[in-house]
Amino acid sequence: MPIAILTTHPLRAMFSDRLSAPLKDEAQFIIHDGYHAFSRIHDVLSREKVDLVLARIDGVKSLHEISKIIHSDGGHKVILVGDHAPEVIFEYIKAGIKGYLDSSISPDLLGKAIHVVHRGEVWFDRKTSSRVLELFAVREAEKRQNRKIDLLTVREKEVLMCVSHGLKNREIADSLFISESTVKTHLYRIYDKLGVSDRLAAALMMREGEYET
What we know:
elongated, 6 strands, 10 helices, single chain, Rossmann fold, alpha/beta, 213 residues, six-stranded parallel sheet, 2 domains, 53% helix, Arc Repressor Mutant, subunit A
């Protein structure tokens, strides 16, 4: 049976030759126009049998609408097309998209991607996969850092915040109304909990984790 695809403008024009020559001749696809408005997409989805949605998105602004399409009754497979930063693609992957295509994708790969997603798999090219995986690794590292910082007591967090602002031990003691030896004790415990060996590494963990008291 043909695969019913709902596309959004300007994808229809962008892929008109690709969806009419090698693909449509084989009666592989039924094309529905969603145009630019998401209201049109929802209207088509409510009236027509659609196997997957092929859409161009406007950064993260379209995240809510794409999520609605994915999680609507029956659930629809969504492939996005564009040239977005990995941070943007990552948010849509979390929302549940099944594929992401570069705007310059070839006709052959376009058809292959549609078939792959239609049969229940996912499609992300190597470049996209690599960039998103790198971002995922960074996000996970940040989460681990924040979890370590959460092990600190309120006072230890205050001391670490002072360290991250460049204060010396005596200045920290004066600022927090504690003795300098107490500051050193807090620092020792901070290093131990964070798994670092000096104040610079501890301060970097605070800043990279963007922790706020």
